[in-house]
Amino acid sequence: MQALTNRISQVSRKPMSLWERLYLPAIFKGMMITFSHIFKKKPTINYPEKKRPFSPVFRGLQILNRDEEGRENCTACGLCAVACPAEAITMEAAERQPGEEHLYREEKYAAKYEINMLRCIFCGLCEEACPKDAIYLSETFTPADYQRKQFIYNKSELLIPHPKENPEEYKKALGNRPVKAEVK
Amino acid sequence: MLLAVDLALIIEKLVLIIVVVMASLVIAMYTTFAERKVAAVLQDRRGPNRAGPFGLLQPLADGLKLFFKEEIIPNFSSKFLFVLGPGLAMLTAMMTSAVIPWGDKVELFGRNISLQIADINIGILYVFGVVSMGVYGIMIGSWASNNKYSLLGGLRAASQIISYELAMGISLIALLMVTGTLSLKEMVVQQQSGYWNIVYQPLGFLIFLICSFAECNRTPFDLPEAESELIGGYHTEYSSMKLGFYLFSEYINMFISSVIMATLFFGGYDIPFVDETTLTANTAAILGVLALMAKVVCFIFLFMWVRWTIPRFRYDQLMYLGWRIMIPLALFNMLVTGGVILYFNK
Question: Which residues of A touch B (CB under 8 A)?
Answer without folding.
Answer: 24, 27, 30-31, 33-35, 37-38, 40-44, 46
